[in-house]
């Protein structure tokens, strides 16, 4: 009886505990909450910036989160001076987990100038889930109002646009994570976005702000000049120009599937060169840090076999001797001057390599050999010079440096260098900022470049080899080079999906790795950003395909459904990437689900997808059920559910096609909550359903507990309908209840 009373207390607490934000629980409306933020405006400039000043600012800006915290948990990080002479002050906060609550908080704040203008902030911790799980207390529009009022403390909103972000941080967000609204803001001129004066702000579903970042706040305070908006090219002009200029190249590309060792080679048409930005007034393209007229793509130049450098025969039995011979050849020094410090043998399946650390005087280097054929696969030299054919004052030209790099290929990697080629438009350039040449040699397969295989060489202008790296895989299978569409058709496909974005762009001194002294740093050019759509064009099928990594930055789906009582849950799960087109061609809210569909949605509602995949990857090919192998579409979902104890792994067969019933769903829910032992003890629960005789014996306790917790409940007539199939709408609503119960149970466990 004592156990029954304790369970009743838990159920009573779970059923009658409401979840509301602090400010709303006190009776404040959304407008009053916004006004509360507005009242805490940035105060006047301080005479001296101290840790106490910064803590005071934090408490003014975030009264709900930090008004009563322990000030000893704040850490003053000091300041950094920016180019305009102003200082940026950094303050962090750390609240470690304790034995009673298990909660923690990590926060960081950056303030600009003596006025202490907040330029960035983030809040992370267990507490950010409190009162913020689905359903949210505020709408997207209300969150936008809160974001604007917060931003208005630092910027003049008349000069900015603030809107809901078009892109999610994750392609799939489980219901176990707090509801977040992400907004982007940017300064505008002539109604157009200024690309480098912008930021992001995130508001929780309970109305609290948990992150804010303004990129280049200092630049927004400066005076700038801007291109005029008249006399610019139209989108029709751009389309016409690109029809003449756009070029595509057949390439073999790598697609990574389930694991890091599973590469699939695809023949694709890729845009070369990448014409992604055009000056709006003259049509020049932004290439390697400057706007230039279009230049036709150069052809690949296959490395000639004419130059032959004698090398030592590979001596696997005495790898140290072989290393000494190669190093002495490279540096043109006596072997007696070289000291081998360390030799490591590495084996991975059929691969064998030797990694050697060596020393010459006080200078160190590292070299790695292929243990099968003796090719050098990596070499890093710290301060060694080889004898130069140039005079002391002369410096290597690009052409001579490239010839030198090819010599190293033939010296170090004769086996791997076969079929390598280079071209002007690829990664062959002089890095003016760091004063060295970079060369990347690509492997050609049947005359088609494979961008996944290359050898990379770095040489200084003083004829110093700085590094050498081989990334060649000879065990790959390449599809036949017989594309279904031709080059002109491929260009047409890319142009059909092309879109443009007109905005202001400031050419900084350092842009995408290219260094250029620019006297017009204060001027903004009017440019068209050109987007050809995500993914690539498969040359074998003629279809556009998303790259595997692009699924993490997909655009929020523009899909909504109407339902009498489940619209909120269904639409949130669609926007969160839980219900996808991959699962359903159409969102049929009231049709019964099978086991595979239901389990897929349940797991994605509870865990991030990378966690689900991680479970499957760690199993190394094992499987829980005979009929669900690692090649099955739902293998990852099924194995993750099995590892979490949600499904019964004592069965030999897991039928994915059978209907998902209410009692089966109750069984999953109770096992997920860790109440399996309770469900197996008949004296711990009671059943009062009018159709109790229809419940399968193994599910009786689970159905009773699910009903008591308010997740799957009986109707007004006392019937629980255990064999009734579950619809998508019913599943969405019940998962929401499950997550709320889980959250409350975590609080009870913490309390006790």
From TrEMBL:
Matching entries from InterPro entries are given as: SLH_dom (IPR001119), YcdB/YcdC_rep_domain (IPR032599)
Residue ranges of every copy of the SLH domain listed in the record? 621-683, 686-749
Q: Where does the signal peptide begin and end?
A: 1-25
Keywords annotated in UniProt: Signal
Asked if the keyword ATP-binding belongs to this entry, the reply reads no
Source organism superkingdom: Bacteria
Which protein, by its recorded name, is this?
S-layer homology domain-containing protein
Organism whose genome encodes this protein: Chengkuizengella axinellae
């Amino acid at each position: 009886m004592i156990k029954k009373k304790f369970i009743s207390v838990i159920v009573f607490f779970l059923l009658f505990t409401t979840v509301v934000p602090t400010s709303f629980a006190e009776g404040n409306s959304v407008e009053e909450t916004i006004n509360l933020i507005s009242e805490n405006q940035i105060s006047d400039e301080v005479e001296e910036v101290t840790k106490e000043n910064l803590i005071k600012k934090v408490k003014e800006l975030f009264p709900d989160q930090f008004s009563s915290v322990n000030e000893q948990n704040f850490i003053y990080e000091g300041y950094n001076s920016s180019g305009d002479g102003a200082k940026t002050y950094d303050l962090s906060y750390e609240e470690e987990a304790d034995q009673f609550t298990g909660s923690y908080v990590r926060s960081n704040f950056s303030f600009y100038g003596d006025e202490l203008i907040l330029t960035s902030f983030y809040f992370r911790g267990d507490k950010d889930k409190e009162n913020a799980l689905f359903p949210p207390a505020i709408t997207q529009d209300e969150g936008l109002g809160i974001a604007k009022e917060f931003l208005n403390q630092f910027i003049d909103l008349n000069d900015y646009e603030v809107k809901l972000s078009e892109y999610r941080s994750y392609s799939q967000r489980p219901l176990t994570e707090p509801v977040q609204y992400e907004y982007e803001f940017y300064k505008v001129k002539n109604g157009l976005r200024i690309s480098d004066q912008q930021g992001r702000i995130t508001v929780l579903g309970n109305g609290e702000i948990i992150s804010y970042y303004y990129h280049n706040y200092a630049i927004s305070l400066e005076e700038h000049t801007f291109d005029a908006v008249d006399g610019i090219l139209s989108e029709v002009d751009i389309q016409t120009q690109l029809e003449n200029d756009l070029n595509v190249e057949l390439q073999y590309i790598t697609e990574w599937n389930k694991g890091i060792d599973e590469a699939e080679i695809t023949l694709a048409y890729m845009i070369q060169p990448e014409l992604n930005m055009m000056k709006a007034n003259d049509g020049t393209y932004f290439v390697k840090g400057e706007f230039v007229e279009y230049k036709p793509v150069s052809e690949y130049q296959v490395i000639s076999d004419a130059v032959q450098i004698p090398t030592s025969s590979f001596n696997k039995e005495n790898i140290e001797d072989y290393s000494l011979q190669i190093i002495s050849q490279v540096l043109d020094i006596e072997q007696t001057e070289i000291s081998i410090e360390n030799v490591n043998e590495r084996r991975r399946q059929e691969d064998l390599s030797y990694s050697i650390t060596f020393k010459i005087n006080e200078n160190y280097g590292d070299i790695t050999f292929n243990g099968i054929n003796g090719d050098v696969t990596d070499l890093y030299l710290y301060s060694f010079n080889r004898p130069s054919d140039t005079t002391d004052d002369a410096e290597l030209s690009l052409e001579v440096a490239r010839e030198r790099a090819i010599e190293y290929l033939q010296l170090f990697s004769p086996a791997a260098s076969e079929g390598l080629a280079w071209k002007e438009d690829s990664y062959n350039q002089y890095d003016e900022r760091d004063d060295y040449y970079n060369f990347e040699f690509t492997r050609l397969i049947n005359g088609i470049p494979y961008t996944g295989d290359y050898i990379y060489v770095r040489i200084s202008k003083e004829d110093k080899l700085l590094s050498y790296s081989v990334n060649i895989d000879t065990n790959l299978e390449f599809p036949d080079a017989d594309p279904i569409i031709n080059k002109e058709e491929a260009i047409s496909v890319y142009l059909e999906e092309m879109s443009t974005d007109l905005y202001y762009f400031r050419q900084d001194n350092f842009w995408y790795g290219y260094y250029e002294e620019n006297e017009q740093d204060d001027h903004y050019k009017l440019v068209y950003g050109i987007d050809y759509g995500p993914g690539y064009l498969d040359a074998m099928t003629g279809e556009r395909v998303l790259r595997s990594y692009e699924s993490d930055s997909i655009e929020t789906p523009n899909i909504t459904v109407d339902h009498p009582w489940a619209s909120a849950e269904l639409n949130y799960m669609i926007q969160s990437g839980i219900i996808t087109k991959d699962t359903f061609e159409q969102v049929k809210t009231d049709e019964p689900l099978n086991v595979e569909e239901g389990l897929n949605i349940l797991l994605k509602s509870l865990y991030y997808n990378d966690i689900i995949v991680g479970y499957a990857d760690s199993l190394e090919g094992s499987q829980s059920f005979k009929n669900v192998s690692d090649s099955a579409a739902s293998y990852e979902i099924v194995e993750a559910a099995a590892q979490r104890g949600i499904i019964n792994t004592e069965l030999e067969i897991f039928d994915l096609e059978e209907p998902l019933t209410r009692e089966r769903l109750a069984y999953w829910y109770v096992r997920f909550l860790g109440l399996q032992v309770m469900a197996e003890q008949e004296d711990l629960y009671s059943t009062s359903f009018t159709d109790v005789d229809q419940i399968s014996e193994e599910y009786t306790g689970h159905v009773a507990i699910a009903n008591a917790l308010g997740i799957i409940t009986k109707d007004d007539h006392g019937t629980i309908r255990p064999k009734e199939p579950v619809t998508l709408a019913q599943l969405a609503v019940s998962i929401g209840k499950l997550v709320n119960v889980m959250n409350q149970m975590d609080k009870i466990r913490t309390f006790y």
